[in-house]
Amino acid sequence: MGQIYLVRHGQASFGSVNYDQLSALGAEQARLLGQWFAQSRQQFHRVVTGDLARHKQTADACISQLPEGRLAQADWHTDPGFNEYDHHEVMVRHRPDFEDREAVKRFLASSPNAKRAFQEIFEAAMARWMSGRHDDDYCEPWPVFRARCVEALQRLLESADKSQSIVVFTSGGTIATLCQHVLGLTDKQVADLNWTLVNSAVTKFLYRSGGGPSGRVTLSYLNNYAHLELFGQPHTITYR
Fold it and tell me: Is 229 exposed, middle or buried (0-12, 13-18, 19+ CB in 10 A)?
């Protein structure tokens, strides 16, 4: 039986000009994950990333903590099918005024609970995106994003040997969507799950029969961040 470890990237640079960079804490989260993999004697046959900077930075920081021999024969591969949806587009289609970064800052500064207020707006933006009533407004509508994620998983399975251990560095929306595919979740459950995924947490799938079209994929565990609880302090557990 093969294993696929889906790793959500470390904390990115929310609120900065370029979100697609790990924060200092995000890099530390990834290193802690690598130390956890090392202590558990985890070996990977393949390392896959989306093509976003935060995916590759998380992979580099994590894998740097593993003994060199563990990855001597590992195959590294980039697949943009594991990229996240466009958060910015999803938000501004719901709140066009948020196209202006200063407007977002003013909104957050004026809110008694800025994180909660932002989450409520983003939940509404996600609901609009996933409703199917506004697909023409988006470069990548929800059904297209969902199909892209599933196709990326299928490509990975079809190219995998029957007993490989594969680690994929990706994003929360992608992981939640793949869980929908495996578990048969509703769209609402995907959106809810997305909010609960911790930066650098691991979701593990098991696969059989080489992962071809007739292969079977099951969930082993979801959103495991034991490495942060074991090695870190409470402040290392983040969701954005």
Answer: middle
